[in-house]
Specification:
The chain is mostly helical and 279 residues long. It has three domains: 133 residues, Helix Hairpins (Orthogonal Bundle), CATH 1.10.287.1080; 68 residues, Orthogonal Bundle (Helix Hairpins), CATH 1.10.287; 46 residues, no CATH class. It has eleven helices and no strands. The N and C termini lie far apart (53 Å).
Length: 279
């Protein structure tokens, strides 16, 4: 039919055919739970990259790639008789209804809050209620073998280290394990720098590496106190570094100087020029 658009059911059918042992794609047939995880992480980062670049024309494709990862896992679950896509939708909707009693007071989709606009709902109360509900969900799960529910339960171990550090520090801060102000974090950064120097002076690289990890964790805490995402901060720095280094390479090439033959002073000159140009 001319102008017809594919639906979610079409996408689910496509995945089922791709995974068919007889008629499917050999690559898709070979995939399993573990092999798809790296692709899922990569697709999530590509969505974040498109948003940060404001490449909204690319975003439907990137979001589709991320959705396809969910379709993959639902297919694995269906093949093993564990769950299907519609179970994912049901569990998610049920959970969101439970976590938003300020929007759905009766706990179902048709119920609505009356007489109070979204702007009048206190954000801090919503956040507090959200965390309380999540904590009750964590307590209802089977514990991790420690014999007690922990504030750190369900922080995924597979997260990128910096993202996981942010989540760990947020969880502990919520229960009061935090510096009283930003000055305390800055003092911790200075302390960790000093300990790295001591380890290096002692020739103990292994200890220096441990202290470097502590320094990075303290930097993540500073990002939390500033209300910024450390991953996004570092991605921004990576982008600026790349732009400036490419400027340096181009400037040296214009002078007929190979990068490998350039003096450090020449590199520094064009690096500073790149910084000025970027401002």
């Amino acid at each position: 039919m001319s102008g017809a658009r594919y639906t979610l059911d079409d996408l689910l059918m496509l995945m089922a055919v791709l995974r068919d042992p007889q008629q499917g794609c050999p690559w898709d047939v070979k995939q399993d739970w573990d092999s798809i995880v790296p692709h899922t992480i990569e697709e999530a980062y590509e969505v974040a990259d498109a948003i940060e670049r404001r490449a909204f024309d690319e975003l439907p494709g990137e979001l589709g790639d991320l959705l396809f990862q969910v379709i993959y896992y639902s297919q694995f679950g269906s093949e093993e008789g564990r769950f299907g896509f519609h179970d994912i939708v049901h569990v998610l909707t049920e959970k969101m209804l439970r976590r938003h009693p300020h929007v759905f007071p009766d706990g179902h989709l048709q119920s609505r809050r009356e007489g109070v606009s979204a702007a009048d709902v206190e954000t801090h109360q919503v956040n507090s209620r959200w965390e309380s509900l999540k904590q009750r969900e964590r307590e209802a799960r089977v514990d991790t073998g420690h014999g007690y529910p922990s504030a750190l339960d369900d922080v995924p171990r597979a997260l990128p280290a910096m993202t996981r550090a942010m989540k760990l520090s947020k969880r502990t801060a919520r229960v009061g394990f935090d510096w009283p102000d930003t000055r305390g974090v800055m003092a911790k950064l200075e302390e960790e720098l000093g300990e790295i120097q001591q380890a290096l002076d002692a020739g103990d690289k292994a200890h220096a590496a441990e202290e470097l990890g502590d320094l990075l964790f303290a930097a993540v805490n500073l990002a939390r106190r500033l209300g910024v995402d450390p991953e996004r901060c570092l991605r921004g720095t990576n982008q600026r570094f790349e732009q400036r280094f490419r400027y340096l390479e181009s400037a040296l090439a214009d002078e007929g100087i190979r990068l490998e033959d350039a003096e450090l002073e020449q590199m520094e000159h064009y690096w500073q020029a790149a910084k000025r140009a970027s401002k």
